[in-house]
Structure prediction request, 703 residues.
Amino acid sequence: MKRVDLSVGSGGKAMRDFIEGVVLKHLGNHALDGLQDSAILSTPGKIAFTTDSFVIHPLFFPGGDIGKLCIAGTVNDLVVCGARPRYISLAFILEEGFAMDDLDRVLESIKDTAGAAGVKVVTGDTKVVRKGEADGLYINTAGIGEVVRREEGRVIREGDAVIVTGSPGDHGVAVMVARNEFSFEGNVHSDCAPLLNLLPLWEMEGTKWMRDITRGGLATVVCEFAEEMGVTAVLEEGQVPFSPPVRAVAEILGIEPLYLPSEGKAVIVASADGADKVLDYLRGAGGCPEASVIGAVQRKRAAVPVILKTVSGGHRILESLTGELLPRIC
Amino acid sequence: MPAPQGVMDLGILREEQGVRALVEEVRALLRAIGREVQLMEVCGTHTMTAYRSGLGLLLRKMGMRLISGPGCPVCVTPDGIIAAAARLVQERPGVILASFGDMLRVPASDCAIMKLVPADGSSVRVIYSPEEVVELAKANPQKEVVFLAAGFETTVPGIGWVVKTCVQEKIPNVSLLPAMKLVPPPLKAILDAGELHLDGFIYPGHVSVIIGSEAYRFVAEQYRVPGAVAGFEPADLLFGILSVLRQIRDGRAEVEIAYRRAVKPEGNPLAKRLIAEVFTIGDAEWRGFGTIPLSGLFPPGELCALSRFGIKAESGWESAGCRCGEVVRGIAEPEDCPLFGTGCTPERPLGPCMVSYEGSCLIHFKYGREVPL
Prediction:
């Protein structure tokens, strides 16, 4: 079969052939091979459970594809909550006529990413809709992880350090370039990756809070942190390690790079005296050479989640992303 | 620190120490001048640079006010032309209205274009570059593509290319709703009105790439007001401010270029020739100002959507209480408007200055609020 047809989602023999011939070829494992209605799993203690849907366009972009993304996204949601990712569910919604070769590439990349992240795909589903009723391929994944974080010592205090694990915004720029919407060309890669390297941080006493940077960019994550914790965070613009392509594209389009999405970077809040240890780990064994302290937690100012100290020595209030990023007209 | 001459020197504009040193130079000059100084930054992108970098508030504390001028194309476009665009796409079948995104969110007498329901077979398309108009027309030969052509001298050469291409290739289904404007005439209008005390101008960078710094010569010579063309990095803006402050300190009034890596005194002759070849200069209506003589650019009659469809652009509507007209003239600050931040917000804008990313109200709302330190 060169292209996906409606029979692939029929629930009948054609679907079984598809799952056995295409899906299990890449993802076969003990739990999945039985093709039961549910996977029966065991975990030692508390679990974390999360889900996410992936509708990215284009499906393939520099540095990744929807397959890598759908595993990394769910894995990261588990990791930042202090859970070791174990099991993943995988559901496809395919548009009739989708090229089987492309699906093969996506599955290959799901296999590689799941392998790197140490998770197993244990259950799944396939639906096909008629041509024109979807745009190629959508994927939903859910994930289960074992909670490894300890709760003690995680209280946020004034003076805690705000750390970013690397250059934010690379994913947003890579996808924009791939869409060719603004006729940009450039050698920029999405940072899309499973952040298993952050898991050991939950064993360090200094680590207090963690969240991966996604749609709203760095600014939105720090705002969420400050609002949830009832503090004000003060960020130093000059300390944020933006990559040159992100700076350049943001400047040309008049977009604030602080709001550009990432898929493989996180914000970590660490105690004042534990921040050095966290940073040493990140820059060394953690494989995040650009990890930087970008700000600090301060007492709460009414209705101001984040204050940005600018390169020129001024200050301004930073808020969560509102609305959409529209390009300038002159 | 000298202003960078070439593109290769751009790195220094980002260096924290360098930018802070420029701020200190400004502080020292203001001390030497010994009084409060009021400058108008003509371009909305400069307003953005000033507030996004925190310089706007910082400079104010040092005794210098930056007043935003009429340099946001969305903000100065009068409501009549927007309402005409709205009516066309609402009432005529088979019209594709092509526009830059911000324009579609400006409230007009009926409602913002983005919110209205187009007639059968009609639609609204957001474009990023004028050349997309030609592509749209070729891809939809049975439809009329109407381009809401707003912009200053920066955007106008691109629009000129559209006009020229349509004439040369005999593309019959493109017309323009003219909202193209020239930057120098409203400066003259502001100076003549005398409503505002101005110690100097920061001239726009991108516009000046096209028209050249000589276009502002009359400000220095006839009105004795100093000015400088500046670029758009915070450091660029500071170089421009320093240039004007030195003129004030020395009692000079000149047009200096603090953005030499992009701007020449004579501008870009090729682009200027294209503008002159394609468009006619005429009296144009501006939001807040009314009609300013010889301040607009108009396409050849057969390409004007107003004459092609036999419609008129009649202005006079505005949201009750909206003070955008005064804000674009520089005589009111966004914070002076009773709607600012309460009835009028970026999510629910009542006037263009809260819509556009170069609008003073949006910029003040997002970046200009007093920071509790």
User: Anything to note?
Assistant: Residues 169 and 369 of chain B are 51 Å apart (CA to CA).
